[in-house]
Inverse folding.
């Protein structure tokens, strides 16, 4: 087996583009005067940061779907759990500045007449603990869920449907006030993060740069996993699961490992998302969100990693534009995108671009042939 | 001679009563109304109510409505028509006294009036009025009505009403220290037989000093009522569960066909249900504006139309999208999800985002009371309809050539193709059939759910749970799955609450799928390993 370098051409392009974004956007925001066409306005920074956290979520979906054939329709749940962990930290930072000015209890608990902090809220005033939880909670859930599911060989659409049921159940649960996560309204009205006022321009730039860094780190981690021997086994499982099992690989262990890793990545994405958006509510668990994340990957190009990032950015930019300019049409576009991509562009933007490129190369070298058909499953 | 004497006595009595010369308790009580004192008024109400005088009911009614006027020791009733009559004689009164004032009321007096009204109407000739009166006395437990109620029980011919009157009497006797022990034990027994929430409340709220020979049987009766009520409420919950189960069944059988035959996960299935509901809405709108007399039949007109509309949309979807994706179930899932978004938005654009009003025909409103159960007709219709749809589909699968071909394709697509079944056509028809069934489910659901563009989304996850739980490609599995989930959901609800119950059920299904990844009734054979 040829040992592939983690720093191949694609990685270098992705990393340098991310680095350029992380430098350029803050510079254009701070140094360029607001009148200039190159100025990046203040409200754009958290928006771009949000896209980057979505891109990290897409990356985590691509890791399992593109390379291991696990279509999770519940990855939004891991994203939201990471977000809730961060939200709980931010709630505790409000301290006595809430409407009811209780030094310990968040407003919604005072409102519900709770006298003391529920046990699962303890420790969340300490940032390292909250950060750990943003990783550990989605990771543990994915581990338990995956352990049950993969061991009994729940595969294909069945797995997709029970992951959807999982996120749906969590959504219902978080809507309950008794759960102690703010019910319907979720967690919001944040003030500080690590002592910095969360609304300030500086904090937003820091968060943006951190999101870009996390995305770059996540990308390198996924690239490393995919290029390793583990990654080869994953691809083997994707293409012929029973054959891999007959070759002596413990398929369920590989699946479980990558599923858990992917859930933790999604948790990090959620933790970065919440401070930039300023709210987390149970709507993030909605099954539709998880499916949307899958379509980002499909649009960009499944099984390419870079495609997942590209897809998340393109689709979300499109969503922002459409919901502003033509709100009626956004669902038509999104729905059409699902159909169009699955029917006509099964390898996404990146795959289509690659096909074009290779076709061009063949034309240039005079060896015209039809494009190699794509083997899907 | 005797007859003549009787006649004379009656005549005499009549003369005396009308002339006012004969002074009974009624006449004695009248001046108290004029005394302008609440306690006097209250006492007078009791006396009047117990007197049995023909004018007592109009008088108490007038008092309640503020039409009882008093002047200088005399009492007058102002009739609703405006005329004044003398409360003592019942005759029209000519010259109106100048200082007429209405008799004043306070809450205590009003309560006394309520109780008295109950007692007085007990003897009225209308059955509905007597029933209402019995209920009023049952609630007020007014001891003053006891004599009237005993009279009423003796006269009552309707066994139902008699029971109600006896319950009213029992409610008075039970808490009455003056009543005999035998009477009170009779009251306990009567209330136990009545066996509803009110009787339970009476039996379990005896005054503190009640003697033990009453308290013990009362406690026993209360316990027996409690367990009876628990049984009824469990039955009621089972009924709710069956009703929810049939809704799930309706939503899921179409899915079971498309998934079972074609292995296609149709995420747009919920939108087919929604389209069926909107078809009903359109049919009703047309009927309302053009032929209102047909409204009662609107659902029967909507059923075939909904089947055709959604079936047509289904075939269209299959021909344009799904047939290119066979063998790629995950891609199908995504594409049909996209279609569901498009359909939702299309309906939102055409009909608006608001809920649309779908009327219920008269024959579907109302409820059947069966023991302690209340079965609403629209739910009953849906249960029957779900089973009818299920049976029809079963027959179609079993006894028609389409069903035969569909089963052949399910079991072995390539072999079916080799013996000349046009699998493409069967796929399109099966998808159309599944979608059409979803459409008629939409007609039924329009009766119990809000008809909005989001209607389908509420059912899609539940329907998938049913199909996956029951076992794919097996109609009986879908039936068992739907009923199990429906009943389990409703039985959990009283203990865990609606939301938590649903969460528990979802978790249970997720765990169940770990044990049996192919559902309760899995297809056997080689097809499943493909």
């Amino acid at each position: 087996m040829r040992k592939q370098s983690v720093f191949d051409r694609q990685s270098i392009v992705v990393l340098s583009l991310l680095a350029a974004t992380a430098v350029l956007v803050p510079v254009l925001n701070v140094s360029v005067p607001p009148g200039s066409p190159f100025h990046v306005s203040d409200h754009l920074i958290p928006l771009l940061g949000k896209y980057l956290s979505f891109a990290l979520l897409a990356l985590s979906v691509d890791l399992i779907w593109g390379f291991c054939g696990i279509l999770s329709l519940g990855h939004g749940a891991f994203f939201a759990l990471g977000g809730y962990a961060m939200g709980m930290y931010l709630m505790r930072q409000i301290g006595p500045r809430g409407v009811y000015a209780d030094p310990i209890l968040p407003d919604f608990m005072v409102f519900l007449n709770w006298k003391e902090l529920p046990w699962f809220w303890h420790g969340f005033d300490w940032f390292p603990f909250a950060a750990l939880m943003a990783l550990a909670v989605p990771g543990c859930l994915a581990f338990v869920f995956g352990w049950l599911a993969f061991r009994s060989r729940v595969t294909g659409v069945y797995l997709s449907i029970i992951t959807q049921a999982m996120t749906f159940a969590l959504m219902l649960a978080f809507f309950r006030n008794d759960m102690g996560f703010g019910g319907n309204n979720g967690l919001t009205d944040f003030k500080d993060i690590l002592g910095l006022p969360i609304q300030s321009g500086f904090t937003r730039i820091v968060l943006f740069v951190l999101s870009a860094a996390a995305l770059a780190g996540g990308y390198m981690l996924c690239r490393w996993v995919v290029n390793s021997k583990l990654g080869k086994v994953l691809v083997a499982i994707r293409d012929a699961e029973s054959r891999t099992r007959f070759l002596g690989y413990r398929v369920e262990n590989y699946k479980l490992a990558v599923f858990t890793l992917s859930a933790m990545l999604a948790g990090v994405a959620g933790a970065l998302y919440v401070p930039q958006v300023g709210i987390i509510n149970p709507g993030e668990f909605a099954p539709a969100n998880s499916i949307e994340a899958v379509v980002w990957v499909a649009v960009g190009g499944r099984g390419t990693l870079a495609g997942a990032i590209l897809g998340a950015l393109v689709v979300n930019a499109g969503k922002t534009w459409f919901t502003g300019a033509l709100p009626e049409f956004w669902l038509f576009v999104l729905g059409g995108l699902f159909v169009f991509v699955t029917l006509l562009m099964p390898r996404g933007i990146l795959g289509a671009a690659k096909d074009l490129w290779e076709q061009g190369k063949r034309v240039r070298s005079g060896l015209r042939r039809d494009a190699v058909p794509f083997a899907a499953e | 001679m005797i007859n003549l004497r009787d006649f004379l006595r009656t005549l005499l009595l009549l003369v005396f009563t009308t002339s006012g010369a004969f002074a009974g308790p009624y006449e004695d009580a009248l001046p108290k109304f004029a005394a302008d004192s609440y306690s006097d008024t209250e006492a007078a109400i009791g006396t009047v109510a117990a007197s049995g005088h023909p004018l007592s009911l109009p008088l108490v009614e007038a008092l309640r409505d503020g039409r009882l006027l008093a002047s200088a020791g005399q009492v007058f009733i102002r009739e609703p028509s405006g005329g004044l009559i003398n409360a003592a004689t019942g005759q029209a009164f000519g010259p109106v006294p100048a200082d007429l004032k209405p008799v004043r009321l306070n809450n205590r007096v009003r309560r006394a009036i309520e109780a008295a009204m109950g007692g007085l109407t007990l003897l009225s000739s209308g059955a509905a009025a007597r029933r209402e009166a019995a209920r009023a006395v049952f609630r007020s437990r007014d001891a003053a009505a006891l004599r009237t109620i005993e009279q009423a029980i003796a006269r009552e011919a309707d066994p139902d009403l008699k029971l109600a009157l006896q319950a009213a009497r029992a409610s008075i006797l039970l808490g009455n220290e003056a009543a005999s022990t035998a009477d009170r034990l009779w009251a306990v027994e009567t209330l136990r037989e009545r066996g509803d929430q009110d009787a339970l409340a009476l039996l379990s709220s005896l005054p503190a000093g009640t003697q033990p020979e009453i308290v013990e049987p009362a406690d026993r009766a209360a316990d027996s009522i409690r367990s009876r009520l628990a049984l009824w409420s469990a039955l009621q919950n089972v009924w709710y569960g069956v009703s929810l189960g049939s809704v799930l069944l309706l939503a899921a059988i179409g899915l079971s066909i498309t998934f079972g035959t074609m292995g296609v996960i149709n995420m747009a299935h919920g939108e087919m249900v929604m389209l069926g509901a909107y078809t009903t809405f359109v049919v009703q709108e047309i009927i309302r504006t053009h032929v209102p007399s047909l409204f009662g039949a609107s659902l029967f007109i909507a059923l075939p139309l909904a089947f055709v509309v959604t079936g047509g949309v289904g075939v269209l979807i299959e021909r344009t999208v799904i047939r290119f994706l066979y063998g790629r179930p995950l891609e199908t899932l995504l594409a049909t999800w996209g279609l569901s978004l498009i359909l939702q938005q299309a309906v939102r654009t055409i009909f608006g985002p608001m809920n649309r009003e779908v009327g219920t025909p008269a024959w579907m409103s109302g409820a059947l009371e069966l023991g302690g159960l209340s079965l609403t007709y629209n739910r009953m219709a849906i249960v029957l309809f779900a089973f009818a749809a299920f049976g029809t589909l079963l027959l179609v699968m079993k006894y028609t050539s389409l069903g035969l071909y569909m089963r052949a394709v399910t079991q072995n697509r390539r072999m079916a193709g080799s013996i000349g079944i046009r699998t493409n056509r069967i796929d399109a028809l099966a998808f159309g059939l599944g979608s059409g069934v979803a459409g008629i489910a939409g007609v039924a659901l329009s009766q119990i759910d809000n008809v909005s563009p989001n209607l389908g989304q509420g059912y899609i996850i539940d329907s998938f749970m049913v199909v996956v739980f029951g076992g794919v490609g097996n109609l009986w599995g879908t039936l068992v799955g739907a009923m199990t989930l429906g009943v389990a959901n409703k039985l959990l609800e009283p203990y865990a609450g609606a939301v938590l119950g649903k969460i528990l059920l979802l978790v249970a299904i997720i765990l169940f799928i770990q044990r049996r990844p192919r559902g309760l009734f899995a297809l056997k054979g080689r097809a499943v390993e493909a």
